[in-house]
Specification:
Length: 273
């Protein structure tokens, strides 16, 4: 599916590598192409909006193997994916360990493993797991868009020696922001956002929402199975939410007391009805 989804421009990066620079519009188009391949077409009615089945997308559209293992002891490393057969050095169970990870593997930290369907606990990590899988899928999509020569260079680099998990992630630093944006676009397609918002727009007062906007965001995050934070970032990214200072907070559902009227009533000894 993913080879040459779109073309990107290449420029010298801070690591003296040739790095692909994609615009916001490029990434949106990339997400649409990938999702159309997965679902045939993105639904265009609000009642059809459901969470993107990101596990199925990873397995059946990108051809990835998905598994859970301990990637670290401190919980800071949530997921990795491989482009070729790779040996990765982990620090887990209080010791260093080298594991062999086959090509096109998506490994998620065991802390995010979903509970058993039979008698399992509530899935409190669902949104984090979904975004982690989407982020690693984004890395795969972006990797498959780069020229064959560059891909061969990466493959040689990753397969030639044992790589620590932190070094492996650092190699991807220049792709992290693009992968985050693409992951958000995969989980929260622009069309879904527009359908759920209707003609509404959201205002963020510092870190606060008024009641109508808070209810709207809660409904949208539930419908898309994403966190409130991820959704608000996506709304701002698409310019469907604006940020104002906390002191500008306004809630149209608040019943506010007019202090001037109360002051007059108190002075006169009367009661303000």
């Amino acid at each position: 599916m993913a080879d040459r989804i779109i073309s990107g421009s290449w420029n010298d990066g801070h690591r003296k590598e040739r790095v692909m620079k994609l615009s916001q519009n490029d990434i949106e188009n990339c997400a649409i192409t990938a999702l159309n391949s997965f679902m045939s077409a993105i639904p265009n009615k609000v009642e059809w909006v459901k969470p993107i089945l990101i596990d199925n997308f990873a397995i059946y559209t990108l051809g990835l193997s998905l598994d859970y293992t301990r990637l670290c002891d401190d919980g800071k490393m949530l997921g990795i994916t491989t482009y070729c057969d790779t040996k990765i050095e982990l620090y887990r169970y209080l010791r260093k360990e080298t594991i062999s990870v086959p090509k096109n593997m998506l490994l998620i930290n065991e802390s995010l493993k979903p509970p058993s369907l039979l008698g399992g606990q509530p899935d409190s990590e669902r949104t984090r797991r979904r975004f982690t899988i989407a982020h690693e899928c984004a890395h795969q999509i972006l990797y498959r868009m780069i020229p064959d020569e560059k891909r061969r260079e990466y493959d040689l680099r990753y397969s030639a020696r044992v790589i620590s998990i932190q070094e492996y992630k650092n190699m991807e630093d220049w792709l992290e922001w693009q992968s985050n944006i693409l992951a958000a676009a995969l989980l929260m397609p622009k069309k879904y956002i527009e359908l759920l918002l209707g003609n509404r727009r959201v205002t963020i007062y510092g870190k606060r929402l008024n009641r109508p906007d808070g209810l709207l965001v809660a409904n949208m995050s539930n419908r898309l199975a994403v966190s409130r934070t991820a959704l608000l970032l996506r709304l701002r990214q698409l310019e469907y939410a604006k940020a104002l200072p906390a002191e500008a907070y306004f809630d149209p559902t608040d019943i506010e007391r007019d202090d001037e009227i109360y002051a007059v009533a108190e002075i006169g000894g009367g009661v303000c009805a």
